[in-house]
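Task 17 of the worksheet. Students: predict the tertiary structure of the chain below and write it out as structure tokens. Keep your answer in the requested format; marks are given for formatting as well as content.
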Amino acid sequence: MAAGLHLGLVGVGRIGAMHARHAAALDGVARLTLVDAVPGAAQRVAADVGAGHAPGVEALLDAGVDGLLVAAPTGAHPDLIRAGVDAGVPVFCEKPVAPDVAASVRVLEHVAAAGGTVQVGHQRRFDAGYLQVRRAVLGGELGWLHGLRAVTCDAAPPPVAFLATSGGLFRDVSVHDFDVLRWVTGREVVEVWARGSNNGDPDIGRVGDVDTALAVCTLDDGTLATVTASRYNGAGHDVRLEVQGSRGSLCAGLDDHTALRSADPGVAFPAGAPHATFAERFAQAYRDELAAFVDLVRGERGNPCPPQDAVAAAVVADAAQAALESGAPVRVQAPAPPAPRPCS
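Model answer:
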């Protein structure tokens, strides 16, 4: 394949515009073409990043792109993934694959039948700290694990109108933590218990969500993990993973920008300003995941986040939401795998 790829990107909202900036600056990307449903949006972002724009997805695919980036609203993901794989184009799609697990499984079946390639955007898999924790865990450096603590706390909540359609805090935010629990340990989550609270904007509760939640996860080898999320962490954007083992412990996200301060006298760490949002916290990881997609398109690496993994994390998020609503532990039921592709 030629060195310079032509990538198409659908959706230039907040995260799509960020992906456009990163993709336009990537080595190996010779051309970037943008599409958005909002009139004028693709043109504006294209002018900012030095990209082209197309009137729609069909025109974009007809232009002969080498890879398709999907950052449109969640409801559009299934059709865009199908359009890409049906055109024989590798697809990168922001999580989730679809609005719910049932729809996601149908997408998996379509991708498998078409022999398509889809990488899902779980950017923590490309963060240097998370990568090092995974290497240490899978390499046995920490011994056997006795506890994991995953934290994702935003400094302030998004608009309530978004929360009303987000699927809930566990599905919107903690799904990243559920993904890294599986990815870091190589184990499956088999049971979840959860609690939530609303001490902030009462409108969050009125739309059926919580602003703070805790899930206790049991892995298939009995290891316990906690997943904590909040919309109101005034100290800053706080994302960490602590892993404790019989021989050692590691923490991803503990650096000079950690949104945490010590109460002990004489402790100056961390010295830097906390990150305000996920975009700053994971800036390099977002660049690296798109670089990995370029390598995937070229056939130079395997898929770092296949859609089956993303759906497995969504299943855990569903179980956490069910446990939150019922007040009782919920067993995690894995979805049926997609049917194997028939031999040609």
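Marker's comment: DSSP finds twelve helices and 13 strands in the chain. The mean pLDDT is 95.
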